[in-house]
Amino acid sequence: MPRRTASPPVAAPLYDPRAQSIVLPSAALGLNKHLFVYTPPDLPPGMRVPVLYFLRGHEREWINPKEDDSRGSTNVIDVYLRLRAAEQIAPFVLVFPGLSSDDNTVPSVLTNMDAPALAGNAPGVGSGRFADFFFNELIPYIDAQFPTLGGRARGLVGFSLGGAMAIKAAAQRPDLFASASAYDGTFLYAVDRGRRVRATDSVIRNPMFDAVFGVPRNTQLIVQNSPANLILRGDAAALRGVTWMIGYGPERHEPWQANFYRGEHLVGCLAARGLANALPHSQFADGDHTWRTADAFAALALPLHDRALRAAG
After folding, report:
1. pTM here?
2. Which residue among 57, 81, 123, 216 is buried most deeply as judged by most CB within 10 Å?
3. What is the mean pLDDT of each run of 10 residues along the chain (313 residues)?
4. Which domains are present in the chain?
5. 3-state secondary structure of 233
6. Radius of gyration of the chain (CA)
7. Are 152 and 312 within 8 A, CB to CB?
8. What is the DSSP letter of 1?
9. Is residue 208 helix, strand or coil?
10. 3-state SS, one letter per residue, for 31-92
C-alpha cells in the first residue's frame, strides 16, 4: 500500500540561491513535497502580482543551470530577469513545483495515479494524488503565502512532459489560469473526437507510466487527463479565456530531439475548437529537445503571458 503518513522534511539542494526552497506537507499525498519559489526582491510592500508555474517533473529542472550541457551557466530566472531589465514584462512570482517522485523516475502527469503502489520504492509518490496536491493544496498555499493576485492571474509554462501537464491543467481548470504554454510537449493523440486516445501510442505503453495509468492501462483515466482530449471535449467558452502558446522542434529532429507530430496534433485540436496558437511553431525552426531551447521558448512566451495575466488581473 502507498505511504500515507507524512515523512520528515529533507533539505533540498540549493540549485539557485535566488529561489526560496520550501518543504510543503501534503495531506493529499501523505508526505512532504519540495518546491522552489522566486519572489521579485523589488516588489513594493503590499503589491500583488501574477504568478507563473513552471512544470517539468522535478522541481529543480527549470532552475538548474546544469540540467543538461546546452544551458551554460544560466536558467529561466535569468531569462525572466533579462526580460524585466528590457521592460518587456512586469513582475511575476515564479513557482517550480515537484510533480514527480523525488528521484524523478516516476512521473505524475499531474494526475491522481491509478496504481501508485506500482511506483515501488520511489520516494515522494505517497498516495499518488498529484492533481489534488497541485490544485487543492499548492495553489492555495502560494496565494496565501506569497504576493500573488489570485483569481485567474496565473499562468503555466511547461517543457516535454511538463508541457503536457501545463496544457492539461489549463484545459481541465480554465477557471484558474489565463495562460498556458508548452514547448515540445509530450501530447497523446486524441481520436474519435476526443473520446479516446490512440491505443498504439508508444508513450502510453512506456513502463514508467505504470503507476500513473495502471496495468492494464486505465484508458478512461488517460482520456480524462490527456490535453488533446480535454481541448476537444472541453467547454469552448471557458477555453477561449486562456491564451495558448504551443512550440515544438522541427520535423527533421523527430523522434528524439523534437515532438513535432505531437505538437502539430495539439495545435490541430486547438484549431478545431476555434482556438489560436499565440506562439507559432515557425518560431522554433532550429529548436531541439534541450533546456537551451526550453529557455528560448520561455523568453518568447513570457511577454505573452504578461499580456494575458495583466488583463486577467
Report:
1. 0.95
2. 57
3. 39 82 97 97 96 98 96 96 98 98 98 98 97 98 98 98 98 98 98 96 96 98 98 98 97 94 97 95 88 97 97 89
4. 20-312 (3.40.50.1820)
5. helix
6. 18
7. yes
8. -
9. helix
10. EEEEEEEECCCCCCCCCCECEEEEECCCCCCCCCCCCCCCCCCCCHHHHHHHHHHCCCCCCC
